[in-house]
Amino acid sequence: MVREGKLHLLLTLRSMQLRRSPGQVCFPGGKSEAIDKDEIDTALREAKEEVGLQPEKVEVICRLVPGIDKMNHLVTPVVGFIEDTFQATPNPDEVSDVFVVPLEYFVKPLNYKTLPYKTSTGYLSRMHCFIYDDHEHKVSFKIWGLTAHFAVFLALVVFRKRPTFEVDYDLDDLISSSEKNFMNLYASLYKRKKSNL
Ligand SMILES: CCCCCC(=O)SCCNC(=O)CCNC(=O)[C@H](O)C(C)(C)COP(=O)(O)OP(=O)(O)OC[C@H]1O[C@@H](n2cnc3c(N)ncnc32)[C@H](O)[C@@H]1OP(=O)(O)O
To answer: What residues does the Nudix hydrolase domain cover (predicted)?
Structure first.
């Protein structure tokens, strides 16, 4: 969404009652169901269930290169544009807060650190960790892991400028290098699955 002339990302704080990743920041989303025809359907259905966003209020822009979460699930980000007038109605079973962050924060953060990350298959990469202070609501959010990975990639695609921290991409060939990173990660996982057969 555009707020005060700047692109913003809408994020959620997961409910503490959830079995998986309680209290962590993520995008609205979830597992695909048989009724979904594709990942876009899944994303729109989940956004409606979690934050009350009506699918017809979303202008879907694109899908991004998938990521892999810590349970080794394949996660496909769907990017959509929504109006600034959207009023979220969080489903309290799943979401305890909804907030927005300027997209530019993910290339030029005020509070950032990087952590080495080793997947269950031994693949080495880095994990971004942002602290975002929402001054209006006097709350701070920690945005890290897979959520931060997607936010950084989208910010790089949109702004096409060098971030103030290191990233594992060739910035002159962003899409290909992100596909290559994903394929390497996926291959390390697939190799392990095969050897477990
Ligand atoms: C750089 C990479 C770092 C990776 C490490 C981290 O991310 S560190 C963590 C920092 N936190 C984050 O970044 C949050 C990342 N997580 C997410 O964004 C979200 O969990 C998600 C979009 C992937 C999934 O959303 P939800 O958990 O709300 O999904 P939902 O409620 O539908 O899940 C119902 C069940 O389906 C499973 N499930 C969810 N997505 C799935 C998928 N793509 N493929 C298979 N299964 C899936 C869930 O584990 C859960 O299992 P059960 O019913 O068995 O419970």
So the answer is: 1-124
Kindly report, residue by residue over 78-120, the tens digit of the pLDDT: 999 999 999 999 999 999 999 999 999 999 999 999 999 888 7
3-state secondary structure of 164: coil
pTM score, two decimals?
A: 0.94
Query: Is the CB of 75 within 6 Å of ligand 1?
Result: yes
Distance 149 CA to ligand 1 centre (A): 14
The response to whether residue 145 sits with its C-beta less than 6 Å from ligand 1 reads yes
Q: How long a stretch of residues is the chain?
A: 197
pLDDT digit string, tens, across residues 140-183: 999 999 999 999 999 999 999 999 999 999 999 999 999 999 99
* Distance (Å, whole) CA 72 – CA 46: 20
CATH entry, 2-195, from 3.90.79.10, 3.40.50.720, 3.50.50.60, 1.10.10.60: 3.90.79.10
In whole angstroms, what is the distance from residue 125 CA to residue 109 CA? Answer: 20
